[in-house]
């Protein structure tokens, strides 16, 4: 069911400084930048093989990533797994008794469709299912 790691989402208060850190550390350039209003974030993606590093800046304090930063500080926010059929994956998780935050998948960045699984259902890790366009 899990085709690949799609991305590792990293929360940061200073997006430009973090972009610069990744550029310098790994000698790579960002491949995508997008503001996703519905998720309250601006994101920058770097490619890592078939996956991405996703740097996230909250659009305000009263957003999921804004609240995460206030509570936990900067660092890994979530792991996105690529799936072939997101609706089938959601059904499977629900049948297994795991709490899905988005029973109805919603638009992500890059034209993807996404759904989050509650971290309490996944050992403290916020998991995102990602179906490519
Ligand atoms: Co994500």
| Largest beta-sheet details | 8 strands, mixed
Please, how many helices? Answer: 3
N-to-C SSE string, H for helix and E for strand: EHEEEHEHEEE
CATH architecture: Roll
Gyration radius, rounded: 14 Å
User: The CATH topology, please?
Assistant: 2,3-Dihydroxybiphenyl 1,2-Dioxygenase, domain 1
Q: At the fourth CATH level, what is the homologous superfamily? A: 2,3-Dihydroxybiphenyl 1,2-Dioxygenase, domain 1
Derived structural class:
alpha+beta
Percent of sequence in beta strands? 35-45%
Helical content class: 10-25%
- Domain tally: 1
In words, what does this structure look like?
The structure is a single chain. The protein has 133 residues and is of the alpha+beta class. It has a single domain, classed as 2,3-Dihydroxybiphenyl 1,2-Dioxygenase, domain 1 (Roll), CATH 3.10.180.10. The chain is built from three helices and eight strands, in the order E-H-E-E-E-H-E-H-E-E-E. It has helices spanning 15-26, 64-72, 86-95, and strands at residues 2-11, 32-36, 41-48, 51-58, 75-83, 106-107, 113-117, 127-131. It has an eight-stranded mixed beta sheet. Strand 6 (106-107) and strand 7 (113-117) form a beta hairpin. The longest helix is centred in the first third of the chain and has 12 residues, at 15-26. It is globular, with a radius of gyration of 14 Å. The structure holds cobalt (II) ion. Residues 7, 9, 54, 78, 80, 128 line the site of cobalt (II) ion.
What keywords describe this structure?
eight-stranded mixed β-sheet, 2,3-Dihydroxybiphenyl 1,2-Dioxygenase, domain 1, binds cobalt (II) ion, 23% helix, 8 strands, alpha+beta, 133 residues
């Amino acid at each position: 069911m899990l085709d690949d790691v799609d991305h590792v989402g990293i929360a940061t208060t200073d997006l430009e400084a973090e972009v610069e850190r990744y550029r310098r550390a790994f000698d790579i350039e960002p491949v995508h930048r997008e503001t996703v209003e519905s998720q309250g974030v601006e994101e920058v993606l770097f490619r890592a093989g078939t996956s991405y590093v996703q740097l996230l800046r909250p659009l305000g304090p009263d957003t999921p990533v804004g609240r995460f930063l206030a509570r936990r500080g900067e660092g890994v926010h979530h792991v996105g797994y690529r799936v072939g059929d997101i609706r089938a994956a959601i059904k499977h998780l629900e049948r297994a008794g795991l709490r899905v935050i988005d029973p109805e998948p919603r638009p992500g960045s890059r034209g993807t469709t996404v759904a989050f699984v509650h971290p309490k259902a996944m050992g403290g890790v916020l998991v995102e299912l990602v179906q490519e366009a």
